[in-house]
Design a protein that fits this description.
about 425 residues; alpha+beta; eight-stranded mixed beta sheet; seven-stranded antiparallel beta sheet; 10 helices; about 25% helix; about 30% strand
Length: about 425
């Protein structure tokens, strides 16, 4: 993470604007200061804290990082020059080849994502595309197919976005793939690639593949669509085989199959004479094992299929925010009550949880709440601004059933 350290801060006079960057307002608690920063309609936080040497450490806040790392680097550079004295160390440098302007190849959020599918003959999804060798190869040999890549690391997204500039069938999105699969429409993808995922041999719960993951793959794949796992881990292969074999699908397996394009990881494993396994899962029919339940979401709906309806879920989410706005008048004594109730202990439901990770004071009428919530194996993170008009900063949460249940409980807790 780009960062720098300084001994002293100058007086922060906000809002402050320079070179297209605007440092708009600040939220703080006893340990951390957050500076809301915007650039080209992108919002993110700069995070200020003190280390054990009483030095200020300034960096990007990890759950709000901008799409382009160059934007964060520029923000750090401007903040350093305008508000800091006696720089101790730096771990960033603004390079001319870093993305600063928005790239049409990078999808900021889910808004309008599936509308872009309509311009192509089909959609392939690659999970964790890394250096992008396989994704770009597939895009080149399938010009009428949209190659959708999902990745959690900004540097990988930036690198592949630059390499894909000459292609018109590549779209990249920063997300946890498990959350993305949970909200994509049924029968929307033709192929899903998962090549050399981290095997997590000592922490199997962190693996991408799980029972829910397998179900969602078969839900979003078109009939005749295919999921492909390529791995050097026999243990990972056996787990995936066991999970998919319980569902309505046809499985096949190959070993040490040579591909036209090879990733750096695969090259390494081959030099070590490791076996490479491919699991192919063919979606043959509707998955009768889907168990989406609307229990505890809304007394107004009786059709469990509504849980796959984005309009319904948006309505539930917006209703929760309306209730917050109606119940939280945000007089100083109300803010004090919320601060007193705040704790970092998680709430655990049957299939969901929420945890208040941090609470920040903005002014006498506004608080900032950092939340972790949703399903146990695929948590979401959001900043909820509590004030005259409560809202989620940066992006709306993924509208999964676990997220909706968790956010309803948060709303009930805050309004109690």
């Amino acid at each position: 993470m780009p960062n720098f350290k300084c001994k002293y801060l100058k007086k922060l006079s906000l809002p402050f604007e320079k070179e297209g960057l605007c440092f708009e307002w600040m939220a703080q608690n006893e340990k951390i200061w957050l500076i809301y920063t915007s650039f080209n309609q992108q919002g993110f936080f700069l995070q200020l804290s003190k280390n054990d040497k009483n030095e200020f450490v300034i960096q990007g806040e990890k759950h709000s990082k901008p799409e382009q790392i160059g934007v964060l680097q520029k923000a750090l550079l401007v903040f350093r020059d305008e508000f800091c004295k006696e720089i101790i160390s730096e771990a960033f440098a603004l390079k001319s080849n870093r993305l600063i302007t928005k790239s049409s190849i990078i999808q900021k959020d889910l808004e309008g994502l599936e509308d872009k599918f309509k311009a192509y003959d089909g959609v392939f999804l690659e999970i964790g595309f890394g250096s992008g060798r396989h994704l770009l190869y597939q895009a080149r040999i399938n010009p009428r197919i949209l190659m959708l890549g999902v990745e959690i690391y900004n540097p990988s997204i930036e690198q592949v976005a630059k390499l894909a500039k000459t292609l018109n069938n590549v779209l990249l999105i920063k997300s946890d793939a498990r959350l993305l699969l949970a909200v994509l429409s049924a029968r929307s993808l033709n192929k899903i690639f998962l090549h050399f995922p981290i095997p997590w041999h000592k922490q199997e719960g962190r693996r991408v593949i799980s029972k829910d993951f397998a179900k969602n793959c078969l839900r979003v794949l078109k009939i005749g669509g295919e999921f492909n796992l390529r791995t050097d881990s026999k243990d990972y292969l056996e787990q995936a085989w066991a999970l998919f074999s319980q569902l309505n699908s046809k499985l096949s397996l190959s070993k040490n199959e040579n591909l036209d394009i090879v990733s750096k990881y695969e090259s390494r494993w081959k030099r070590q004479n490791k076996d490479i396994y491919d699991l192919f899962v063919l979606c043959e029919e509707l998955n009768s094992n889907e168990e989406d339940s609307n229990e505890n979401l809304s007394p107004q709906t009786e059709n469990s299929n509504a849980l796959n309806n984005s309009e319904f879920l948006n309505e539930v989410l917006n209703k929760n925010l309306e209730i917050l706005n109606e119940n939280l008048s945000f007089l100083p004594q109300k803010l004090a009550t919320i601060q007193k109730k705040f704790c970092n202990q998680p709430f655990r439901g049957e299939d969901f949880f929420y945890r208040f990770e941090a609470l920040y004071f903005i002014d006498e009428k506004n608080l900032l709440l950092k939340l972790a919530f949703g399903a146990f194996n695929k948590p979401d993170h959001s900043y909820l601004l509590l004030g005259k008009k409560s809202k989620f900063l940066f992006k709306k949460p993924f509208l999964t059933k676990e997220n909706i249940k968790a956010l309803q409980r948060v709303q009930e807790f805050l309004c109690d």
